[in-house]
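Hey, I'm writing a tutorial for new members on how sequence and structure tokens pair up, and I'd like a real worked example in the thread rather than a made-up one. If someone can provide the structure for the chain below, I'll link this post from the tutorial.
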Amino acid sequence: MALRLPPLVGFLTAGFVINALHVEHVPQLDVLADLGVTLLLFAIGLKLNAGILLRREVWLTTTVHMMVSVVLGSIALWLAAVAGVAMLSGQSVRTIALLAFALSFSSTVFVVKVLEERGESHALYGRVAIGILVMQDIVAVVFLTATSGHLPSPWALALVLLWPLTRFARRIWSRLGHGEMQSLFGIVMAFVPGYALFSAVGLKGDLGALIVGVLLASHSASSELARSLFHIKELLLVGFFVSIGLTGLPDLPTVGVALLMVLLLPFKGTWYVLLLSRMKLRYRTSLLAALSLMNYSEFGLIVVSVGVSAGLLAPAWLVEMSIAVALSFVIAALVNGRGHLMVEKIAARLPAQDESTLVPEERPADAGDAEVVVIGMGRVGFAAYERLTGHYGLRAVGVDYDGPRVERLAADGLRVIEGDATDLDFWHRLRNSESVRIAVLAMPRHGANVTALACLRESGFGGKVAAVARYDDEVQWAKEHGVDIAFNVYAGAGLELADQVGGSTAHDPDDRSGETPR
């Protein structure tokens, strides 16, 4: 972090350094990596709205992009072979197509980690990116089944019983409270009916964890469970990133071919932008999704290992692919770390889109005559909205990028619009509103508030800005960067509690506070 690089870059580097030191392979590291990936997919399932998979910007984009990637990737690798790249020379069309297929996948682990660090997995571009990754996982299952030489066990049909099983499990879950028993419940559900049962019938175990998560997603405590597993999952995923670097040591020719593969990444991202914008998404949304997906996947290593087992590829290609995956992670981490404002500048140079033809979530939202805009309508934002409107009589509008949450709050009679506070256009529209004079940044993640503040300043918004934070150093940062009112959310809870207690004591007719205690 001292070099302003994401921690995962350090984990990847650690793997290569350990490998260079010839440290004996530690099998337990692979186990930790598998545990982390399984919990990651279970957590995705807990937050996934299955309806997103039916949207054409997800299933159609995935299908077309993979087909185009295989065709164009094969052509690029064939041209490299013709140009004399040693490792590609003499390879059959089938082998080159297999390599292009391996490069068509994006990393679920990397993308979800980036989205969670930003707090944007529920933003439209985040939901679309995760939907595309899930569709790719389905393609991966079909590929592994087709190349394994045997079909899943007939007992796989019995997995339909997972639905009544999870209905029963939900009843148990509701009685477990909010502590370690809830976390233990999540771990058991991910690894037993999820990973173990699917593996036992010849299916991909981590896909089972994803499906069990989806079946539990409608429970009221699903978001809380995902949060409780977050740090466990993050710790275990260190093993995953280190294990990528332990795959093998590169030599100069290996690095050269890996760099050639990395040069294909911009084309991969460009096709995502073209396809998603054709699906009536804004350029900004398309660019953010494309930058998230512009990397290679750990599944590419599995595809290459299948090729090695079938005698289509030399074992050296495993090292080749691991270097390409690692380099793609490093580049994608650097690019995504500077994502939003860079995307705004690129989107501003692209041709204007007809806003009336965009999908409903992408059309401009109007703050109307609101005096206060509350960004982030979670528990803190909701409480702020209620207080500002009910107690102070201010005209307020809530803004959230979580579409289902916006629909729920609007159904309850709140004035809420769907929007993304990290979108520069959003703040430009607010600046042009004569009534808005206060912006409240109430998003749960400090990084999202930081990005929103940068966009707000870039737009020239001249009103007052208030922000909440979880830690004192975040409060201090906000004050140093021009926030007018910065508040520690836990301190705020204490003040509210004191107000409630003080108010009830002042109006209690049976108050005996003046009596001497016995």
